[in-house]
Amino acid sequence: MSDDCLFCKIIAGEIPSNKVYSDDDLYAFEDINPAAPQHILIIPKKHLTNINSANEKDEALLGKLLLRANEIAKELGLAEDGFRYVINTGRDGGQTVFHLHLHILGGRALSWPPG
Ligand code: 5GP
Ligand code: ZN
């Protein structure tokens, strides 16, 4: 828990969110400003600033995050038509909240390349 982290506060229930999934290690919730019909954020409960902050000790956690994201995508009905995972990292990566999060985006055809 990082005291001034928005997503740590969401995990702690200090800031409300629309929960999609929770277990001992992970929390998933709806993005407040959806960029697609389905836009979910899945985050580790452990505070990691971004993917660059992860190390070998986080290997299992990151594997679990991706596999759980797959299950969420499936539950949202995105598996057949497809979806996109995004991990914005640092300033040039467009990261605005500095607690590692995987975006799950789907429900429409997404364009490429990103802006
Ligand atoms: P980033 O740009 O860091 O990859 O993404 C941060 C995401 O967090 C954005 O898509 C933004 O809409 C979302 N977000 C920011 N503040 C809140 C909040 O208070 N609640 C929720 N549910 N999402 C938030
Ligand atoms: Zn945090």
Write up this protein.
The protein is of the alpha+beta class and 115 residues long. It has one domain: HIT-like (HIT family, subunit A, 2-Layer Sandwich), CATH 3.30.428.10. Helices cover 20% and strands 22% of the residues. It has two helices and five strands. The chain has a five-stranded antiparallel β-sheet with strand order 1-2-3-5-4, covered by helices on one side. The radius of gyration is 14 Å and the shape is globular. The chain binds guanosine-5'-monophosphate and zinc ion (ZN). Residues 6, 15, 17, 29-33, 41, 88, 94-97 line the site of guanosine-5'-monophosphate.
Layout of helices and strands:
Blueprint: H1 6-11, E1 19-22, E2 26-30, E3 38-44, H2 59-75, E4 83-86, E5 102-106
Q: Supply the CATH architecture.
A: 2-Layer Sandwich
End-to-end C-alpha gap: 32 Å
Number of H/I helices? 2
Small molecules held by this entry? guanosine-5'-monophosphate, zinc ion
Beta-strand percentage? 15-25%
> Which strand order does the major sheet show?
1-2-3-5-4
- Morphology: globular
How many strands, what sense, and barrel or not for the largest sheet? 5 strands, antiparallel
Tally the beta strands. Answer: 5
Please identify the top-level CATH class.
Alpha Beta
Helix/strand order, N-terminal first: HEEEHEE
| Secondary-structure class | alpha+beta
Indicate the CATH topology. HIT family, subunit A
Radius of gyration, in Å, reads 14 Å
Contiguous runs where pLDDT drops below 50 for at least 5 residues? none
Q: In which range does the helix fraction lie?
A: 10-25%
The averaged pLDDT comes out at 97
Domain count: the total is: 1
**CATH-assigned homologous superfamily:** HIT-like
